[in-house]
Amino acid sequence: MSQAGLKIAILYDTWEDDAEEPAAPAEEVPPPRRAKRKRKSSKRARRPKLDREEIFDALGKLGHEPSYLVLDGRDQSLMAVARCNADLIFNLTESYAGDDTKDMNLAAYLELLDQPFTGAGPHALYLAQDKSLAKKVFHFHKIRTPFFAVSYKGRLDHAHDIEFPLIVKPLSEDGSIGIDASSVVGSVKELMEKIHYIHEQFDSPALIEEYIEGREIYAAVLGEEKAEALPLVELDLSKLPEGTPKIASTDVKWEKDSEAYRKTRSNVVEDLDEKTTERIQEKAVAAYQALKLRDYGRIDMRLTDKGEIYVLEANPNPWLSSGAEFAMAARKSGRTYTDLMRDIVDLAMARYA
Questions:
Q1: Is 137 left (phi over 0), alpha (psi -120 to 50) or beta?
Q2: Per-residue confidence at 252, pLDDT binned at 50, 70, 90?
Q3: What does the mean pLDDT of the chain come to?
């Protein structure tokens, strides 16, 4: 049952180019005047609300007392979290001091403080971030995922017997960072060039996957032990320019001035039969639970012309903007944006009851 009147601190991170003021305790931080979401352009005449501002408004409508809590990479902001007297932290952090690999450390820090928080715990964040480890877990649970290999500066950590074409990407980056049209390779020369680029640009192992041709399907999942897959959403890549690989590259996701961005749209899937839809949703829930995700998450998949379902990756704590795929799926399920925030809060509070 929903609880009203909770003190809920919306925890988010900033990095050096955000130019925001140092954090204050949660109850003293006013709504941000201006901020940039990572990898999103802020050059707009009228800036739409950020996800944290939309969440703030929704929590207020639910009768809660929302506030902001900022992590800026300074010790003082960590101390502000430790002093926070909120009933629940709504965890929107993606990094610490600009390091995307440390979101799991922040979740662990909240656990050390015995501070209730929404979303994935440190174990799930670790498993999902290391894509090769996640894929090994999928294989163990008989969840189909592309065959792969991992290479880092001449060392091969893991390898299936893979075949071209391949897609090469950083092992631990998210948001399609490091993925562009050249990421899909068809020769040894292209493969070696892309591996070298990832090593040099990201100082990261390269994840080398078999490229799966098919529809890009996203499944939003709510819950934990009794997780529910919401209606499916597709990122329609069919209108990409001729010869461009049908992948969710950086320009498709973030570069608003690019042709790839303008020609791709996310839409609720309406043309799949009930049996196929159920199969996809079942695989999504299985992947979600295999990696110990909780409260909410998004599973990215490919559906081939033969009806084969491949799980590409899992996204703990996905973007909650009202225009993002997760909220789109929630609306199709009959939930308003405020309903979705209520469900996330209720799931988290039930865990700590």
A1: alpha
A2: confident
A3: 89
